[in-house]
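Long-time lurker. I teach an intro course on protein structure, and each term I like to show students one example going from raw sequence to a predicted 3D structure in token notation. This year I'd like something fresh instead of my usual example. Would anyone be willing to generate the tokens for the chain below so I can use it in lecture? Attribution to the forum is fine with me.
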Amino acid sequence: MHHILKSVSVIFHPLIMPIVGVIFYFTKTPRFIDTEVIWAKLVSLSILTIVLPILLYFLLKTLGKVNSIYLRSTKERILPLILNAVVVILVIQRILRPDPYIELYYFFVGILISTLTCLILAFFKFKASIHMIAISGVFMFFIALSIHFSININGTLALMCIITGAVATSRLHLKAHTYPELIMGIVVGVFPQLILVTKWL
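-- Reply from a regular --
Happy to contribute to a lecture. Here you go:
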């Protein structure tokens, strides 16, 4: 069971959740978008949101700014969160303009707000769960898309409920977070997406 729960934390790592949201959007949107454009967006987003953060992590580790990928202390979180916010800003400004990707644009604006909120909490020595921020933010985005596009994705939403619960259980089992840190992570992940829904729903 330990290995299964540890695998859940790895498989549903915060780094991959934004691209999961983007893939889901492109598979469900009723708008016609050229396949080449979709692949170009996915490749560029993967480089910026997955590959670049991994490279930056190894740079920070080499410089002695972080001790492990788990970022166990709030002090270790500050610089990676700042760099991640910069990456998200680049995505918003260069890759996902409001027109014609208004849903994805505000999805990433929500991610930016969640990242900055997590950063502020880190300054106050509170370690909100980044895993829960990521999974709950994507979950809220899925719900909003189902309403926006009038599509039935009850199966997907049920699966997301299970995954969210599994991630929370995993973080508790690994003693990475406390209950308040998990709850705060959910709040920080959901509310920016929920508030920004009014911009495009």
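Some talking points for your students: The longest helix spans residues 35-62. The mean pLDDT is 92.
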